[in-house]
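Input structure tokens:
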């Protein structure tokens, strides 16, 4: 961390998928950018994958839930009233430290669900507004995959060929073929060959908690080194306490706690927030002031509302005659199917879902999560371990106002910032969608010749996609920011993370988060010379 100037052009809060991309883009455009991140730089040799007790570490200091990890950078969360439990990582690189790097894009229809299906709202932007930013982001993160997927618009050649789908991927692919259903190798931000100084994946397995080879892209090793070369600063271990505003309601800078716990103030011409779909509404609500009594940028009352996760379910099967044990190979999605992505009224629900094929997991998580306890535990373990392949159903999650983030003052973090309180219940559309998904996944497992099929009707520990809590729109009465991520109430405050999603799509959100963030940065660079 560089000590210690008191003013800059742009402050970016958060160094995850979105914040790092904006920091890079604006630094290259000649702005003085300081990215403030509450967590530390992570040493890749510390990742669980480099240690014999990796499975234990994944449940303790590298756990996905911040209340389990309880590291100094982790703020407490109250998700007691949420049907889906939160997952995030707080460090330089944000949750991309933990992500698995599966990067499907939204479909053009995802931006027009009100027009097409009469549900939720349309986005104020289209797929085509984002296309070149999706491409730019793939270039920066490095995408392994195969162009030509018939379920999606044509796209430019991927930077690297797909990660090998292996005999297990081929096996499930043949089952999709037998049913006549779409499938395609997954696009991933994991290197299949060496790329931009980062090594190719060695297919060792648990990339979900960080890759010591750097084969999996995370923004601490993609965007941020280039951003720093372009002149940006990253202040790590520094927590933004509040975004400050003046009597005219404009952002003036941030109050922050430095690594020694001392309070400081950094003034800026603009503040960009990329704290994710939970951290951002928390920050905005906590930054209430005389000019923003109900929370910053909250004149519409929409901050914190319309929280969306993705809803998950699935089916897995046991396979006796595979060439390799199924835990071998990276944990990312291997192949995906979008046979049921678009709305078909005859199914009884709106929008749809993607199938993601995943591999088996390590012995300890298999024993703890996949095998029932009791007398038969050891026999069941022997029957399942290394033989299970699964199809996850990731479903679109329509926005509902009652699903929301508020502040819980009874659980402050070490600096006195209240915890986010998350209230979320599963909607009726999601229930129907998941039921359809499980039955369809079962058909694939059957076609693949599974000796036994197990169903999971709903997964609780899947709150890793955080969206919707400061949504974009043209109407200041019903949205928080405009199509440029600019707060309707405060012209020098921008939001760039999943908070500004209008709908969730039926795919992982991060390439869309990063494409939107890069588009916002381009707007600032070209239209807001006054912020330099
Ligand atoms: C286990 C797991 C697997 C995933 N797999 C995938 C996948 O395969 N594909 C996919 O598309 N997505 C995946 N995701 C989701 C993906 O990681 C997120 O969508 C993405 O990282 C969100 O980017 P973001 O910039 O909005 O927030 P984040 O990446 O979460 O970054 C937010 C940053 O803000 C910082 N911050 C918050 N508050 C403050 C404050 N007050 N002061 C300073 N800093 C602050 C945090 O410390 C954090 O570093 C996964 C997530 C997890 C947890």
């Amino acid at each position: 961390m560089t000590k210690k100037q008191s003013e800059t052009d742009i402050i970016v809060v958060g160094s995850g998928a979105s914040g790092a991309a904006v920091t890079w883009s604006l630094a290259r455009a000649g702005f003085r950018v300081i990215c403030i991140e509450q967590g530390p730089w992570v040493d890749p040799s510390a990742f669980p994958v480099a240690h014999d007790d990796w499975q234990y570490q994944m449940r303790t200091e590298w756990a996905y839930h911040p209340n389990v990890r309880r590291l100094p950078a982790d703020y407490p969360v109250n998700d007691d009233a949420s049907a889906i439990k939160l997952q995030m990582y707080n460090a330089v690189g944000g949750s991309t430290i933990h992500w698995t790097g599966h990067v499907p894009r939204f479909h053009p229809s995802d931006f027009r669900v009100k027009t097409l299906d009469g549900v939720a709202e349309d986005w104020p932007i289209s797929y085509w507004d984002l296309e070149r930013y999706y491409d730019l982001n793939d270039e920066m993160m490095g995408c392994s995959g195969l162009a030509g997927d018939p379920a999606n618009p044509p796209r430019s050649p991927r930077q690297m060929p797909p990660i090998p789908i292996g005999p297990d991927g081929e096996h499930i692919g043949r089952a999709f073929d037998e049913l006549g259903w779409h499938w395609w190798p997954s696009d991933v931000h994991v290197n299949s060959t060496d790329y931009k100084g980062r090594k190719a994946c060695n297919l060792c397995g648990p990339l979900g908690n960080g890759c010591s080879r750097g084969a999996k892209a995370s923004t601490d090793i993609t965007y941020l080194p280039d951003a720093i070369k372009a002149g940006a600063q990253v202040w790590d271990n520094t927590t933004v306490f509040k975004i400050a505003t003046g009597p005219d309601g404009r952002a003036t800078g941030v109050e922050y706690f430095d690594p020694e716990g001392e309070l400081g103030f950094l003034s800026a011409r603009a503040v960009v927030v990329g704290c994710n779909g939970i951290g951002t509404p928390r920050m905005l609500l906590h930054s209430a002031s005389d000019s923003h009594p109900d929370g910053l940028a909250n004149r519409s009352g929409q901050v914190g509302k319309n929280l969306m996760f993705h809803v998950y379910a699935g089916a897995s099967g046991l396979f006796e005659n595979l060439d390799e044990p199924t835990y071998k190979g990276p944990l990312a999605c291997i192949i995906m199917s979008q046979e049921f992505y678009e709305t078909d009224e005859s199914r009884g629900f709106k929008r749809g879902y993607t199938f993601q094929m995943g591999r088996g997991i390590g012995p300890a998580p298999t024993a703890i999560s996949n095998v029932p306890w009791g007398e038969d535990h050891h026999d069941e373990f022997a029957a399942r371990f290394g033989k299970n392949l699964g199809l996850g159903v990731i479903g679109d999650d329509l926005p509902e106002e009652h699903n929301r983030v508020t502040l819980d003052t009874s659980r402050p973090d070490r600096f006195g910032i209240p915890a986010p309180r998350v209230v979320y219940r599963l909607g009726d559309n999601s229930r129907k969608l998941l039921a359809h998904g499980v039955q369809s996944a079962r058909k694939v497992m059957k076609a693949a010749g599974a000796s036994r099929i197990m169903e999971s009707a709903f997964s609780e520990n899947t709150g890793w996609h955080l969206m919707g809590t400061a949504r974009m729109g043209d109407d200041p009465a019903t949205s928080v920011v405009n199509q440029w991520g600019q707060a309707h109430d405060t012209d020098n405050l921008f939001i760039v993370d999943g908070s500004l999603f209008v709908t969730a799509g039926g795919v992982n959100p991060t390439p869309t988060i990063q494409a939107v963030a890069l588009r916002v940065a381009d707007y600032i660079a070209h239209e807001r010379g006054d912020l330099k």
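The mean pLDDT is 95. Residues 7-531 form a domain with the FAD/NAD(P)-binding domain fold (CATH 3.50.50.60).
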